[in-house]
Amino acid sequence: MNKTIMIATIALLLAACQQQSQQAAAPRPVWVMTVGTSDHAVGGSYTGEVRSRYESNIGFRVAGKITERAVNVGDQVKKGQLIARLDPNDSRLNAQAASADVQTAQANLALAQAELQRRQQLYRQQFISRSALDTYETQVKTAQARVTQAQSQAAVSQHQTAYTQLLADRAGVIGMIQAEPGQVVAAGQTVAQIYDLQTLEVQIAVPETLIDHLQVGDQAQVSLGDASQVHAGRIREISPAANSQTHAFDLRIQLLQVDPRIKLGMTAQVTFSPASATQKIIVPTTAVTRHGDQAAVWVIDNKQQAHLRPVTTGDLTEAGMEITSGLQAQETIATIGVHTLAEGMQVQAVTPAPEVLN
């Protein structure tokens, strides 16, 4: 009897162990997703202001009193056109004085050369020594140097006389002028601003989180007051440093076609073309775990087995974590419950609804 009971007990224990083994070998359900690339574009619209690429601040190169102003704000000017004029009397007198200095230096040179010729005759007749002749030769060389100096000073004076006229350095429109007859200005003081209307562009500010997705040459669309009219543009310049107050980067969007309806200072809306988009791999933040100091994800192979793979992460976006290397498109990864997995574990892939991962 006891032997029969012992055999029945052993059979029951074996059955229980077999049931536990079958339960342990059951695949673990895991939420998964198939990795895909997404177009990450710089979205949204950015408000900017129409500016001119060339905004010249011009002023006189000499100080003086303004006697004439030839243009007003808004006037179209050509290159070389007169903007304003200074009183030329002082400059003219300086030029005359410099010219007189040249004549004086030339007369002294002629006298020194004549004296040298006389001394050379006396030297050939051995009436003076060689050292005395050297003295007169030195005087001639000194007089020649003074003539050169006087001529250079006269040229500078002539240039300063020409500097009493302020001329436009480029064609454009007068945006600002601070010159009235009778006003005394210093050398280098800004008197007028000239804007080149043939090289209009829009200046905008882009957040620091998006600046890496843009580069010089990217296409853009610019709309002004009339939203139905869209103008083509491209990024011409990206500031290398962010604004210390706004922490945004200034961009210059060049307008590719000249439109007379576009005025300086107008408000513009800038959007970027899909060409500015880049292909990125974005995964839910719950899919990324750590393996030591290295970020990693669990990849599910065709045999429904989990394998830990190190990856390199990029920016954290609203859509999830960017994976820059270590993961390929169309691979399957675990998204939730990654901390319960082990290398080679058999899993049961479950694909949740998209809103669950958001």
Automatic annotation (TrEMBL):
Residues 95-153 form a coiled coil. The keyword Mitochondrion does not apply. Residues 96-164 form the Multidrug resistance protein MdtA-like alpha-helical hairpin domain. Residues 57-194 form the Multidrug resistance protein MdtA-like barrel-sandwich hybrid domain. It holds the Pfam family HH_MFP_RND. Transmembrane segments: none annotated. The keyword Transmembrane helix does not apply. Residues 202-275 form the CusB-like beta-barrel domain. InterPro entries: Beta-barrel_RND_2, MdtA-like_BSH, MdtA-like_HH, RND_pump_MFP, YknX-like_C. Keywords: Coiled coil, Signal. PROSITE patterns: PROKAR_LIPOPROTEIN (PS51257). Gene3D superfamilies: 2.40.30.170, 2.40.420.20, 2.40.50.100, Helix hairpin bin (1.10.287.470). Residues 282-348 form the YknX-like C-terminal permuted SH3-like domain. Residues 1-24 form the signal peptide. NCBIfam families: RND_mfp (TIGR01730). PANTHER family: MULTIDRUG RESISTANCE PROTEIN MDTA (PTHR30469), RESISTANCE-NODULATION-CELL DIVISION (RND) EFFLUX MEMBRANE FUSION PROTEIN-RELATED (PTHR30469:SF18). Belongs to the membrane fusion protein (MFP) (TC 8.A.1) family. This is Efflux RND transporter periplasmic adaptor subunit.
